[in-house]
Request: fold
Amino acid sequence: MGHLHQVDHYLRLYNVIGHAVIGEKGEVTLNEIAETLCCTQRNAQLILHKLSSLHWITWIPGRGRGNRSKIIFLREPDELLLSVAKEYVQVWDIQGATALVTNYSESFPYIRERFEMWLNSQWSMLKWEPNHLQGENILRFSYEKPFLHLDPAYGYLRSECHIIKQLFDPLLIYHPERNHVEPHLSHHWERDSTGRSWRFYLRRGVRFHHGPFLVAEDVVYSLERLERSSYCWMTENMASVTASDDYTVDILLKDADALFLQILSNEHLSIIPAHYCEEIGRDFFRFPMGTGPFKLLRNDHAMLVMEKFEVYFRERAILDRIEISIHSVGNLQKYREEDLQQWKVEAKTASNVMMLLCNLNKPGYPSDPRFREVLELLLVREKMIQELGGDRGKVTESILADHEKELVKKRECKERIEELLRQLPEQKIPLHLYTFDDRDHQEDAVWIQKQCASVGIRIELHLVSVAELLKVETMQFADIILDETTIDDLVEVSMLELFFNENSFLKHLLSEELKGFIQNRVTELRQKEHHALRLQQLIAIDQKLREERAYISLYQNHIRTFSSADVKGSSINAQGWIDYRDLWM
Reply:
């Protein structure tokens, strides 16, 4: 965009001329113009010519001595600002547009709100935009954070994992409706009588987005590579992974595992191109190539763009292109009810659970069961949801609330809190509560801090980036961590991720005793063929963690998706996102 300086010149002239009326002539000399713009008369003439060519002003130079020149302003200043900001957005420079509006927000107090309203109307909802010239259907919406880690072995955030599922494919695919693992990149598999030796046959003709065919070498590389990631527990039971030929992979397990096929269907075990990954190195995080239904075209701090992969090996997506703008989405409460009624709304309770984790390995309050009981009784979830509002939807007592039938709700008991506080030793230093630096986590943390302060417990807040919070030294230093976890359709694998992922806060904050208890139960669980029996083991683990107050469950979010009435097939998944391959118009 080249209009930034011209906007500044226009506004300075408009303000200095004073009491200018749009469309009416005002008198001024070229020397006054030059002084206003802090430039030579020659440069002033060039600037006036540029503003005239943009049709922002009409400039009538004075002829002869003593004849003053005349200037006609053709654009209202605030409308001009808004128009130029929109031009920035049209070339995907949303950060530039926001900066422009912010720079002039003092002079034009309402311009920022008007711009945000317009921007939200363009991006904050799912919009299907037919491109009649090219016969394309484009989905456009916005998201607040860039997608930094789209590598299956390193994706952490729910948003990242969702995009990974659009770009990549695992060997197998799990269908929650049928509770069954089905063929995907592998069209057939066999195992021996011990359940330890497995052979997988790959589909032929599956292409990566950059052209090469997928072969067994890529599968071996992808699975072995996980040994160096936070998800190493997923492959630690694999004694060996070998390629018998280009389309046959043999996997030998150390022990038989009833969850083996489910684990292979997880997005973190998606298959990546070995040679491309080695060639591109760390850039694979931001610009990976997979075999999935969508191919990545752009991924930076301003925008993520994907297009339909035309030679996808399964049924192709109907949607041609997805454009995700990276900027603050704003708040739907700004919209009038009649505006929102024009959109289709889908709502559900998310599978995420917001929870507090105490560091059971630190001496003092965090490892003192009396303090953890105080914390649980003090934090009244209904009050939290009512006071903070937003997307906080439902009180939950457990991360397995959807699977446990009998959960006792905790009630605030002032007498019990006072009794426990009398038993606790004097607090000499503040407790360090760490959480992510986004708005919802900050609001929750401040609310928790105030509740604790009401009974004399001092909390110091640390709002940090994802990268900072995932550092082991940060986890070890923290007394309390406010986190949210998602238990998706693969319940058993989701729970095991919570217990064993290297980037799991629970894994690092649990006592050695509880880690041993979990390990023993999980070992039993992985020998049971039936889902119901495995779920019983998980519920037993969860009950133990809640009894020890190793975590304190707070609430689940309420998710609403607003979309154009033309958009069909939009259903919210466990991560709170929509599977784009199912969308149609």
Q: What stands out?
A: Residues 158-328 form a domain with the D-Maltodextrin-Binding Protein; domain 2 fold (CATH 3.40.190.10). The chain has 21 helices and 21 strands.
